[in-house]
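Quick question: what would this complex look like in 3D?
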Amino acid sequence: MNIKEIAKKAGVSVATVSRVLNHPENVAEETKQRIREVMEESDYTPNWFARGLNMKKTNTLGLIIPDILNPEYMEVAKGVEDVAQQMDYTILMCSCENDVEKERKYIDIFIKRRIDGIVLISSLLNDKDIEEVRKRDIPVVAIGENQELTCETAMIKIDCRNAAYMAVNHIIKNGFRDIAIIYGSTPFKENKEKLEGYISALKAEKIDINKEHIVETGNSAEDGYLAAKKLIKSPNPPRAIFASSDMLAIGIVACMRDCEVKVPEEMAVVGFDNIQMSKLIEPKLTTVDKPMHKMGVVGARLLFDIIDRKNSDESMKMPEIMLQCKLKVRKSCGHKERIGEMF
Amino acid sequence: MKTEFLGFELKNPVIIAAGPWNRDGKSIKKAFESGAAAAVTETIVSDTISDVCPKIAFDGMGAENIRLYSDIQVEGWKNEMQIAKSGGGVVIASITAHTPSELAYLAIKLESFGADAIEINLSSPMGESIEVFASNPECVYNMTKAVVKSIKIPVMVKLSQNTTNISEVAKAAKQAGCRAVSAINTIRCILGVDIETMKPCLSTYGGYSGVPIRPIGLASVAAVSQAVDIPVCGVGGIENFKNVLEYISLGASAVQVGTAVMLHGHKIIEKILSDLEKWSQEKNIHNVSEIRGLALKNLKSFEDIRFEPNVCDSDSGIKCDDGCIKCINSCIYSAIKKNGDDVIIEKSRCTGCGLCNFICPAAKLKLTW
């Protein structure tokens, strides 16, 4: 049954039925009641696509994540969804598997499906791609940085350089000086910053940089495992490893267990992200607490602000919101004071 | 007794402090029904944190809480703010965040929902780092500045005793452009330990509030009032109208009451306000500005305290047959003795320390010279 038939059955115009669906506050209580009863009897649900065309909005957000198997991105996605739900929006989530072509394809699909806004997590898109979307008047918010972007984009970021500095400095304060870094290939920009933070923390304590202790690898726990294995088999193995993600760190801890190297006594390990798994492994992982859920929440909130302002005349400056990372001290770093773990 | 605060003319100086008693629109309306001129929402954050229980403990004097922030997401506050505002009082939104841009964004949202003012809470001692943000003047400056330049409504900064010099923090907040400061937030504490189970009262460090922190609050308000010329809101341990006047006399333009509402309900606000009204009628004082800071003049530097050879008056002995020997027990100089029903003070031993004046339940001992 379609809207015309409902109107006929209820003895009102199509416009009145439409108002009941979209602006019920403008319909007399009695009429509203009658039309709703007819709808219920006829088991009527509005045609979602037709409605989108008519209302010029679909109450749908597009969300692109780099890798659906990575728990870090799922926590961000959960944050986006938590806000979207309250705003009565549905999310179309796509995983582009760190492939920029796939990401572009999904963007194209989003545009064709007339979604109301797009959230990009650690996006591989460049300035030109984002400009393309903006030209179509579709609001975009980027959460986390992967590429160097210069165009004005609403963005949620974290200070990876500072966070990595803090983590490596903590390892040094725990008495380690031979510290390696294992970092993943993506997100490219953030990991580059983590490397810079690592180098400046070592320099600040006048520790020589050992190029063999700087290892780039993939992004999975397996990659972390293999990179760590190579390090401990090298002629000068480090005494501590800082990993650019918890997934890598979990792989590193697994490798140490298999190689019978004790963590943290013989090898301190510090991760990044604070995914839920990091407090479940043994020893519990010291890591940088990245506010993943909050990044999703604030990112979605920002997107709704831009959607809201779309029809108003005042131009909106695309804000950048920086969120704080905190060191989460647990056991894998060899820290001895309990007070550090409390806060 | 009216007051001017944060650019508003308040019908009285009593504001209900941030806390779970102001957790939503309905409870804030209740605050206004009790007569409070303004209310501060429970602290609102970007992302709500899962609640814990138990979260509040009380030892008969002070309360410890590990209750963390509002559990209503920012989106929900749009509606709650409308309900709160329908109560007719001034609604101040308390917010906290960890970076200037995050805090400013929250302030923008709450302003758009209709908050009349913002209170920046950078000093909750629970669940944050060992040093709260409000320990550090530079940090307070950056956070406050980001908020002040983003919104039009007035901004107040809540200060903490968890710092080495609260006056410096107040100066930084003023420099950043806030219209007022409030002092003090709760103080990091562990209320006690059950020695049978060896468990602390609550399972993590909490914030201490209530009557025992009032002297600390009073000293903080005095110190801040002497350092900056923006209005100060006194917070900490207020439970009667005299406490309100104490804060005002030390420089506060308004006060906040929190723990007393938690322990006694909103009727304590009605009582404070009616007693305050009665007092102000008797004294013919109608505006807080008439008495604000009067006690500050009597607050001296140590070297300005005039030497007066005060000792306890004892020429004839003091009649006391209560069987109470509190004064004798507490005289560290052994100057008080009992002779039958008389309390005798040996003038040569009395140093005029003054403690017995506070100890004597019948107020029979006085210093003179």
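Answer marked as accepted. The two ends of chain B are 39 Å apart (CA to CA).
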